[in-house]
What we know:
The chain is α+β, with helices and mostly antiparallel strands. 44% of the residues lie in helices and 22% in strands. Helix 6 packs across helix 7 and helix 6 crosses helix 8. The radius of gyration is 21 Å and the shape is globular. The termini are far apart.
Amino acid sequence: MGEYLLDGVNRIHYQSVEQFREALGHIWNVEVTQSDPGPIEIVLSATCVGDCLVYGGSANRTLLCSGQRSDDFWTISPITHSGTGSRYRGQQLDEGEILLLNPGGDVYQQVAAGHRQDAVSIPVALAERILQAEHQTSAEDVWKRWCVRSDPRITAHVARIAQMLLSESSAGHARTRASVDLAGKIIALVQEARQVRHAPSSLAQRRRIVGRAEALIRSRLDNPPSVIELCEATHASRRLLFYAFRELLGRSPYAHAKVLRLHAARRRILARRNERCVQQIGFDLGFWHSGQFAIDYARLFGESPSKTRLDTQQKS
Length: 316
């Protein structure tokens, strides 16, 4: 392959999902929560090739990312052995597949602990130009919805390109028209992978159920809705409600509501580091027993609420 103009590779360690979310805020607008208990460490490598973004990362805890991708980028992610078993919109990702993510689409992604996933995000305008000129196809036909293409040879090729660009040895390489060169190569490879797996028709109903239920949960973090209230809001049976949550989020409705409230508590502690009473924050979010709040918080984050506040005060 040719050489590309790089701005240098940034390799950053994050010890909170809030920092990680902020780092990728221009690519997607999502809430990141951890599903496994204990202190978290996320490693992110990223570089720019002209206007294209190349990045990859892994975490020591299972993460759930839910929200929406940016309208400005088309993202291609090769699934290698290190990413096998993670799930996207309820579908397990297998080695040799390429995940094609439509601009502005919904995100429901479960990333397993220790798994690494790389991606290339191409500006929409550039991708449209290449598809229309080089492949005589409409961009709308390509990314009107997300899909998975399966071709181990092409997946491995795309993964090698991303890994090479994210390696230290690639820094400083240069070539003109960097974005066009990289995007053209990636799109050509993706177009060769013809075996397509689209989302099952039942996914739309499950997304609707989870979306309505999440909206109600987020509107009442201080007073989490009961299962019957969630069933009434979504017009779904208890069985279907739980199935949709398990498939898309990997959690029960109750567990998801609790995790969202604990993450909200953490964000408030970080934002109000000069306030002394962390118990009041828990109380405001419906944790009526301060002792149980501290236990639940420590179980998820690996530290007490007071420790979070103290560490933040020392760093400020």
